[in-house]
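Support request, please re-run this one:
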Amino acid sequence: MEISVIGTGYVGLVTGVCLAHIGNEVTCIDIDKEKVNTLKKGISPIYEEGLTELMEENIKNGKLNFTSDYKEGLQGKKVVYIAVGTPQSDDGSADLTFVNRACESIAQNLEDDVIIVTKSTVPVGTNEYIKQKIEMDLKKEVNIKIASNPEFLRQGSAVYDTFNGDRIVIGSDDEHALELLEKINEGFGLPILKTDLRSAEMIKYASNAFLATKISFINEMANLSEKIGANIDLVAKGIGMDKRIGENFLNAGIGYGGSCFPKDTRAIISIGKQADYPMPILENVVDANERQRDILVDKVLNSYKDIHGKRIAVLGLAFKPNTDDMREAPSISVTEKLLEHGAIISAYDPVAIDNAKKVLSSKVTYATGIEEAIDGADLVLILTEWAEIKRFPLENYKAYMAKPIIFDGRNCHSLEAARASGVEYHSIGRPSIK
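Re-run finished. Output below.
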């Protein structure tokens, strides 16, 4: 199948590369000419495990192409995916600026009948709007069909998830569109759920809102457990063994971040307001997550009272491991608060330092490794559960710190390991080791 994918961000690039890998001829369109030239060389602008290798393979075999020319990119295509960003507006709703621009460019350059597939996360009803907008601006008489194909990819494992996910959702009110998209997606070998257009849009928001709720719930249980002397590790294991609950997303920490959960929970709250239906559960989920980001700093201030001039090592900056994404990363607010109290920060992240420099204060300095970051530090904060950080033995902190004190915001180490190491260790929802 000849396919176009508009947008080469996280979702668009992974979508295009993986569609090419299952045998389709894919052209990815992006208006950034410099970015397109980089992509043509097989260089990915995002850090995503396995993506570069698939890009190189499918560029080489001619299945994957990139262009900044809409006319070239749309020519002869039967299916066009819209996979541009939908950032959060000031009121919490999804900003459709890039979707509108994509629609305008499609309408101006379309010459053949086509199925438009929205991959971007958009409010319920947006696909109907997309169809109307394109049809209104068409330069030639062509037939437009519309479908929704939301993504459920985890950053850091998006390529893996594409081929090993739980399901593929396809929504359309046109039976032919559903059949064709089902045929395209059969190559991924995953269960396919076909729905109406609005249900597909809603599934995406509902999924992310539920997972965000689960995270905020376990964090509240962790905070309470710590106050009453329980261990959240055991609590989470006990409730997770209930098949109705499940063990996934029951890891206590300093809250969720990234481009999906924060944006999508606020967006569905906004959708509720527009429908005159308040959503207090999700409003509290958002509030709980915001409060959770302060937990680790509060622990530090309760222990030290005054951290002015203290040398603090921050390990992990990305919002989660295996990605360089700094969007809504807890490290942003944590480092800001530490600096406000006069701390001196040395930070380390395996891949996110370049992006961190764009959003963190210029007062933050960066190390090339864990050892360099913690050398001479008064205390350490762990903010991202990178495998490298989790594997770093607690005993090794003694070689670089006069008195090793660790505040672990991701519960990377067991309490048994902390006791055996002889370091002072504070975590989330568990007893402190002193």
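The two ends are 62 Å apart (CA to CA). The chain is about 45% helix and 15% strand.
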